[in-house]
Design a protein that fits this description.
homodimer; mainly alpha; 11 helices; about 0% strand; DNA-binding
DNA sequence: AATAAAAGTGAGTGATTACTCACTTTTATT
DNA sequence: AATAAAAGTGAGTAATCACTCACTTTTATT
């Protein structure tokens, strides 16, 4: 719970921010998610937030500065569970099976994204166009997270629970399946009735069977 | 081959277009893919194309009109193989196994996207913000393509080659795995050395095992 | 209560935006 | 060769853009 609701955490719980600054961030998140960063004007954000346009630039040097102050913490929180120090310990103690680990991970991150859909949209949309975000993505996700995942994958491979593919392929297939569900669920067809538990379970089973070790002949 | 290189097909082979119009389309595709639609100005496109700005508006009523004239044919071509009349016949004759069908489909669409990366980027980036494109996507992909896929899935399910999940789940998992590969390959890490054949084969095996029928107890 | 610092304001800045239009040049039609 | 239609042009337009700054109001410090 304390992990969800980034908007709250970025905005409401942060006592360094003034009241007006919080209104600005809320308005910016809403507009960026809806129309995209480039198509949103600072005057529009000021109007929606109910502040003068000058107030935005009192707190953020540029419009891009405002974007980064929103997106950077979101990316950090998104990958936080994968870079905690004791991930391996948690793993060995609590998750005997790959299935349980996978289930816990998916539930955890799905809940997080569910609670932060507009921020998720902004991150997805702006990474291709913002070199600073690409740098963050590559340095943190592609390197730090990948290293952690690699260790976990090795663990379960040695354990005989996981097919002997290169770790990057295992990561790609797992990530594709999970993001495929999340994007369909929250971005493409949010208006449909979804049985989240059943969908997640089916996704887990798909991944597990897809990555099951080859049967010995 | 004739199916690839949309840019050629939209532009060079289309004899309805004037020389300058072709230059405009080429420049627009390049800039839209690189910086995004909203962040690209018409003056910039004119400059890159080496034409007067007025020439753009002689052929396209608005900037959005220019975008749609690029993206709509791309979307149509992308889904073309799935809506041909005789897809089911082709299926029954040529693809005894789900594996062969899947392999042919992935190769075909991967080649197509590989030959049209900038257009692929534009489609992915602009769908969330352009209601006209969303409508096209839902009407053509989500309905027409899905219907075709449903029939194919039923066929292989009755054949005992495919797990008995709801077709939309089968589609989602298959599409996630394929797009996951393509996005990683061409958009996230195009600079890495990829063994395309091996990657595609691994992706096919992942999908096949993930969607294999449950063994009877 | 006096002073300083921080927060907030909104009119104003030059640059840029998508788009127009009167005009010239090229191409097609007879 | 004459005429019309289509293609191309670039200066001009009002609107909007991100951002500044002199000024007022609020908050913190002593």
């Amino acid at each position: 719970m304390s992990d969800n609701h980034m908007i709250d955490e970025i905005i409401d719980k942060n006592e360094n921010l003034t009241e007006k600054q919080k209104l600005i961030l809320e308005a910016a998140i809403e507009s960026f998610a809806e129309k995209g960063y480039a198509a949103t004007s600072t005057s529009e954000i000021a109007k929606k937030a109910g502040v003068a346009e000058g107030t935005i630039f009192r707190h953020y040097k540029t419009k891009k500065d405002l974007l980064l102050s929103i997106v950077a913490p979101m990316m950090a929180k998104l990958i936080a569970p994968f870079v905690i120090k004791d991930l391996n310990k948690v793993l060995n103690q609590d998750f005997e099976s790959l299935e349980d680990f996978l289930r816990a991970m998916i539930h955890n991150r799905a809940e997080f994204l569910n609670a932060n859909i507009p921020l998720f949209k902004i991150v997805l949309q702006e990474i291709p166009f913002q070199p600073e975000l690409q740098k963050q993505f590559k340095e943190h996700i592609a390197i730090k997270v990948y290293e952690r995942m690699e260790a976990i994958i090795n663990h379960y491979q040695e354990d005989g629970q996981l097919i002997d593919l290169p770790p990057y392929q295992v990561v790609r297939m797992t990530a594709s399946s999970i993001f495929g569900f999340l994007i369909g669920r929250y971005l493409l067809f949010p208006e449909l009735d979804w049985d989240d538990e059943q969908e997640i379970e089916a996704t887990i089973q798909f991944i597990l069977h897809g990555l099951a070790p080859k049967e010995k002949a």
